[in-house]
Specification:
Elements: H1 7-24, H2 34-46, H3 54-78, H4 89-103, H5 109-123, H6 128-142
């Protein structure tokens, strides 16, 4: 059974922090990885992470650098009545990481949705987990 200290879960937490920093800084680009090391360093301390799956994190960051537009387009198509620019940045960050994993088939969709909902409960608003579950459920149906 997965625990909150699972290295793959911790990698997803770092990936969300990475995406959040990119989405919060309009001058920042997903095609530059120099800030990843800094984000990992801050996350290890600030999020109290002792171990993470570096391979999974590297795959997610690489995929984001190459395909961020595709992931955002997928979110837009599945977020009926929600303009992506109006979404909370944290919710969007979680959705981007989860969509990346779903479309690259890193993990079964059910696991990805469960992970994203847990991240939403940890980092999002009171309604974030339901919102994220709904959008990711729609994406999973199209796979």
């Amino acid at each position: 059974m997965k625990t909150s200290k699972d290295p793959r879960h911790q990698s997803r937490r770092i990936a969300v922090a990475y995406v959040y920093s990119k989405e919060s800084n309009s001058a920042s680009s997903y095609n530059t990885s120099e800030s990843l090391d800094e984000i990992v360093e801050v996350a290890l301390d600030g999020l109290e992470i002792k171990h993470y799956d570096k391979k999974l994190l590297d795959i997610i960051v690489s995929e984001l650098s190459n395909n961020i537009s595709q992931y955002k387009d997928t979110i837009i198509k599945n977020s009926i009545d929600w303009d992506i620019s109006k979404m909370y940045r944290m919710d969007l960050s979680i959705l981007i990481v989860a969509t990346c994993e779903m479309l690259t088939k890193q993990t079964p969709p059910k696991v990805i949705i469960d992970e994203a909902v847990e991240l939403a409960k940890e980092f999002g608003s009171e309604e974030s987990s339901k919102f994220i579950n709904g959008i990711l459920g729609g994406i999973a149906k199209t796979l």
